[in-house]
Design brief:
Catalytic activity: Couples ATP hydrolysis with the unwinding of duplex DNA by translocating in the 3'-5' direction; ATP + H2O = ADP + phosphate + H(+)
Distance between the termini: 43 Å
Bound molecules: adenosine-5'-triphosphate
Family: Belongs to the HerA family.
Number of helices: 13
Radius of gyration: 22 Å
InterPro entries: HerA-like (IPR008571), HerA_central (IPR002789), P-loop_NTPase (IPR027417)
Protein name: Helicase HerA central domain-containing protein
Largest sheet: 13 strands, mixed
CATH topology of the largest domain: Rossmann fold
Oligomer: single chain
GO molecular function, one term: 3'-5' DNA helicase activity
Strand order of the largest sheet: 2-1-4-3-13-12-11-5-10-9-6-8-7
Helix content: 25-40%
Structural class: alpha/beta
């Protein structure tokens, strides 16, 4: 019998799950293996102070998802550390796509999102022009044309066009950009947004979140989407917030999962904590961050969470609301290289061994 977070105790029932790690005893020794359910949708919040393993854990989850059929993982990567998932030349590489300059199709954003993105009031002047343009057209050129065709007061027209030009200058909208169909192809897609400012980074996240949610609601998909967002406070603080909240509050019914990782749980809106059915907490020490989690602390957690904080990188306490259980665990080692690593001799040696092995295999 093994324990599957999000499902409970399970015999080998053949349902999809990923190997998350092992139980951790008080003396630090490792116990039985621990798994994470991939059969149904989940909202998972991964928290922890810098350097204690959030991105690493996100990578472990991404690896497990990549090796599971029936799911389609997308990673929003603001630090540029997940490319190694799909480009690792070692022995355990994963089939997937890394997009260094990700662009979304303009109509992945609905008219309300366009106004929010550009900071415009949809009820007035330039905002209502952008709203109508987004309703009618699916390209930025088309939207600009739509604005000029309205015979609106020239001040409003100029303001709307300037805002659309600003959006164009971000380089994240393209009619040939990624759409839900591409993201749902099954292989992992890593969207490296590390070169972008906060607004375009948020635009990509909102576009992707909305596209995945809309595709799932339309009921035409044959894989369940998983959206993994690192440094999630950047997106909960920006225009992507609404798309993430939609997935958190309404995503599970159509089958969309969200895994958000942040070192600042205090910057995550309450809904981001209360609607997560699984909390994976690495070490946290800031009072504000512990308070944010304590406010949502379930009654079945005996004693304060602060007293159960792990001490070492990779160690976690997991609160599983679907089974109302709490677990002390050690997250397993990554199979692919962790992009956030400082260079180390052992990591280089591992990569060299792998490339020698694969060369020998092809000789
Ligand atoms: N489960 C694990 N097994 C082994 N090593 C780990 C594990 N988790 C983390 N580490 C080690 O801790 C380091 C820091 O992890 P990681 O980069 O994920 O931190 P982080 O919390 O995301 O920090 P940041 O907020 O700075 O991105 C890793 O490079 C790795 O060496």
């Amino acid at each position: 019998m093994t324990f599957v977070i999000g499902r409970g105790e399970a015999d080998d029932d053949g349902l999809p799950k990923l190997h998350l790690g092992a139980y951790r005893a008080l003396d630090g020794s490792h116990g039985a293996d621990l798994y994470l359910d991939l059969d149904g949708p989940h909202s998972i919040l991964v928290v922890g102070k810098r350097g204690y393993g959030k991105s690493y854990t996100l990578g472990v989850i991404a690896e497990g998802l990549s090796r599971t059929s029936g799911v389609a993982p997308t990673v929003i990567d603001p630090m540029g550390v997940f490319a190694s998932l799909a480009t690792d030349s070692g022995c355990s590489s994963i089939a997937g796509t890394v997009l260094d300059d990700p662009a979304v199709v303009p109509d992945s954003l609905d008219p309300r999102s366009w106004c929010a993105l550009l900071g415009l009031d949809p009820e007035n002047g330039a905002g209502s022009l952008v709203w109508q343009a987004a309703q009618e057209r699916s390209t930025l050129d088309g939207m600009t044309m739509s604005v000029t065709e309205r015979n609106a007061p020239s001040r409003d027209e100029r303001a709307a066009i300037n805002h659309l030009r600003l959006a164009e200058s971000w380089g994240v909208f393209d009619e040939d950009g990624i759409d839900a169909e591409t993201l749902l192809s099954g292989e992992i897609t890593v969207l490296d947004v590390s070169g972008l400012d906060s607004a375009p980074m948020n635009a990509v996240c909102r576009g992707v979140g909305e596209a995945l949610y809309r595709a799932s609601v339309s009921d035409t998909i044959d894989r369940l989407p998983w959206l993994l967002v690192d440094e999630a406070h950047t997106f909960f603080d920006g225009v992507a917030k609404r798309a993430l909240e939609t997935i958190l509050t309404r995503g599970r019914a159509p089958g969309v999962s969200l895994v958000s990782a942040t070192q600042r749980p205090s910057a995550v809106p309450d809904v981001g904590i209360s609607q997560s059915d699984i909390l994976v907490s690495h070490r946290l020490t800031s009072g504000a961050d512990l308070d944010a989690l304590t406010r949502a602390q379930p009654t079945y957690l005996n004693g304060p969470l602060s007293e159960r904080m792990p001490a070492e990188p990779g160690e976690v306490v997991i609160i599983d609301d679907s089974t109302e259980t709490v677990h002390a665990a050690q997250v397993r080692k990554r199979e692919t290289a962790h992009g956030g690593n400082s260079p180390s001799v052992s990591e280089r040696a591992r990569a060299n061994t792998c490339s020698t092995e694969s060369k020998t295999a092809t000789d």
